[in-house]
Amino acid sequence: MTTEAAPGASSRDLPHPACEEIRLEGVLHALSDPMRLQIVRELAAVSDELSCSQFDLPVTKSTTTHHFRVLRESGVIRQVYRGTAKLNGLRRDDLDDLFPGLLDSVLTAAGNQADRLGGVAVG
Amino acid sequence: MTTEAAPGASSRDLPHPACEEIRLEGVLHALSDPMRLQIVRELAAVSDELSCSQFDLPVTKSTTTHHFRVLRESGVIRQVYRGTAKLNGLRRDDLDDLFPGLLDSVLTAAGNQADRLGGVAVG
């Protein structure tokens, strides 16, 4: 079950949808925002967990928190507390199992679009 | 140019984004609604143009019109008047050129999800 606590997780565990609760529409909605797409691209690029503070987004902290929450609640990312840091990781295996090829095609499309638009901000 | 009038189009031409104006975020947003996803699945299944009245959606006519407009303005479908009918067609070639594999992976994911959820309404 994906809702089980991760090793070392505390009572501050954040709610995540189990695999069978993840919906395509919710994932597409989560990915349809330029900031959230940027977060997902960075997580995919490092293939590791990143703390929220490691993202340099041109929005307020509360807006950043909102975007991470939308990504978590839709099943795109997993957020766990490790000490004082909230770490974010892409749920790539779950997404690839549920929607084969979808995440890769979105990441490729986002990369191509960023190249195509050059220095212009995505979106 | 994709903004050129289609053969036989009248002065009632509806505005469409040119290929270079289509954005990934807009396409993902358009596809993130269960009704709009259903419309796209039906258009993909018939590989032809369909009039709005050929879709049997459980929403009001004005809501249906709104959904078609979102799909057109994001670049997912093309809408043309033919006589008194407004015909809708998927911009598959444009989408496949811009975002290779994206539409197919979304359609496959939507089909798998519909199978998985059985009789339960998608979304």
SSE map:
Two copies of one chain form a homodimer.
Chain A: H1 24-31, H2 34-46, E1 50-51, H3 61-74, E2 77-82, E3 85-90, H4 92-98, H5 102-117
Helix pairs in contact in A: 1-3
Gap from first CA to last CA of chain A:
36 Å
The CATH topology label of the domain at 19-102 in chain A is Arc Repressor Mutant, subunit A
CATH architecture of the domain at 19-102 in chain A: Orthogonal Bundle
Q: Biggest interface and its residues per chain?
A: A-B, 28 and 28 residues
The chain-level mean pLDDT of chain A equals 88
Q: Total number of β-strand segments of chain A?
A: 3
**Quaternary structure classification:** homodimer
Describe the structure.
Two copies of one chain form a homodimer. Chain A has 123 residues and is mainly α. In chain A, 47% of the residues lie in helices and 11% in strands. Chain A has five helices and three strands, in the order ααβαββαα. Chain A has a three-stranded antiparallel sheet. In chain A, strand 2 and strand 3 form a beta hairpin. In chain A, helix 1 runs antiparallel to helix 3. The A-B interface holds A 20, 23-26, 28-29, 31-34, 37, 98-102, 104-106, 108-110, 112-113, 116, 122-123 and B 20, 23-26, 28-29, 31-34, 37, 98-102, 104-106, 108-110, 112-113, 116, 122-123.
